[in-house]
Amino acid sequence: MNDFLLELGQNPTARKVIKGLGLPLPMPQQLRRARGPWPARPLQDLDVIVGAAGAGPLLPVIATTLTTAGANPLVASGDAALAVFAESGEAYGRPARPIDLEALAVDTSSEHKPGKGKGGGKGDRGPRPHALVFDASDLQGPEDLRALYDFFHPVIRQVTRCGRVVVLGRPPLPGAAPEVAAARAALDGFVRSVAKEIGKHGSTAQLLYVEEGAEARAAGVLRFVLSVHSAFLTGQPLHITTRAAALPPAAAPSSAGAPAWVRALEGKVVLLTGAARGIGAATAKLLADEGAHVVCLDRPQDDALVSRVARDIGGSVLLADVSDPASPERIARELKEAHGGVDVVIHNAGVTRDKTLARMSGDKWDQAVDINLGAVARITRALLEGQVLRDGGRVICLSSVAGIAGNMGQTNYAASKAGVVGYVRSLAVQLAARGITVNAVAPGFIETRLTAAIPVMIREAGRRLSALGQGGLPRDIGDVLTFLATPQAQGLTGSVIRVCGGALIGA
């Protein structure tokens, strides 16, 4: 998709001229995205600075994740924290090194010039880290929030372009003491604000709320948000819990570590609706790259398109109109007969039927609500009642930021996508005992044929009104959908994950 400002921004001369003229033009940073399937070590040779408040209860998870992913840990929290890294660092040849944050402090009056390399480089101001990771799980009250300032203030401007900031904490549950809950809740506002401050450089910030007892499940999520596969995901609080039962042995990640990240969906069957084009087609390829057999479902009218997608990835085709009342039973039957069942269901099919409420016909209302929400519920019900969805499986639904924030002329669409949010939160509770996770992904402005048809000024606003200052690509959604399908996402269920580049609208 042609984004003139994004392309112009890659020209150093043009950037310098525009800055010199004082023109109020946003110059977004081209995001660094993945170019293939997951490698065993996605953080190979990248510097990551690590800090902690208090005892740092989550440091062992951070240490194991960074060293197995190939990163170079630089620890800023003293000898006790360094000791936590010793065992995993020795095992994977990634010994942690101490780092003095104050020695890295930059002149706060100077222009931020983040590093341009992949990390690991040394310059006048020390390392240009790929990421800053902070364990805030030991916060006990408002006064402890000073630890955030003390860690991030000296180094936030050192992060390389398209870098990462990740804060880990405990969720502010109602049972916690008020002061503790306040400190934990403060992390949300802090991370969202950091995301907006660093977004112009293509960098992202995430908050991982790790429930006590779910520490082992945090590793996969941490690795994902630190990687290039999370390029358009920023400013999000992700809740990692023990709600979904442990995976059955056949579906559990390899105990060997890295192999679990290479073709993590090997042997899995995925049903993907709306697979013929856009987000669906991009997601089908990403799923197949990770080893899944993808059953590509779309309307009979799109036979040629969806067949091409399936052929290119070695998948199979299932032609069905999701709005047909007879389709759910037929889909369940064909999945059972052809594949013995299904492991992952991704409800991507959807429509828009835009009109202001006063001008909207009843048919347009019914079509949007039925296809975007009603069909999701009917198909999922048929798969569950027919015992087609296997234990340890996944149900992933496409919502939208329009369902969270509302949108002019989209009362039908917004209602249906908000309904998806309620649906996944309820279904997640019902299926938790079977180890099945249920989540929603809410895209923001994504560059597709639909957004290309939007009037130019509205399209520009959609692109620029976000922390990253640009629209996302179909693969940005596909990367998140693919991660949620893997065993490493077992700790995420009942979640609504906004993949919107830190859009300024909505929650």
Structure classification: alpha/beta
Flag low-confidence runs: 107-112, 117-124
Please bin the fraction of helical residues: 25-40%
Distance between the termini: 27 Å
Q: Quick one: overall form?
A: globular
The fraction of residues assigned to DSSP E strands is 15-25%
Task: Give the neighbour order of strands across the main sheet.
Answer: 3-2-1-6-7-8-9
What's the story with the biggest beta sheet?
7 strands, parallel
Radius of gyration: 23 Å
Number of helices: 17
Average pLDDT over all residues: 90
- How many strands? 16
Can you describe this structure?
This protein is α/β, with parallel strands linked by helices and 507 residues long. It is built from 17 helices and 16 strands.
List keywords for this structure.
507 residues, alpha/beta, 7-stranded parallel β-sheet, 17 helices, 16 strands
Summarize the structure.
The chain has 507 residues and is an alpha/beta fold. The chain has helices at residues 4-8, 12-21, 59-68, 78-91, 101-104, 146-152, 178-198, 215-226, 278-289, 303-313, 327-339, 362-385, 401-405, 411-431, 449-452, 456-464, 474-485; strands spanning 47-52, 72-75, 97-98, 122-123, 126-127, 131-135, 164-169, 204-210, 236-240, 269-273, 293-298, 316-319, 342-347, 389-398, 437-443, 496-499.
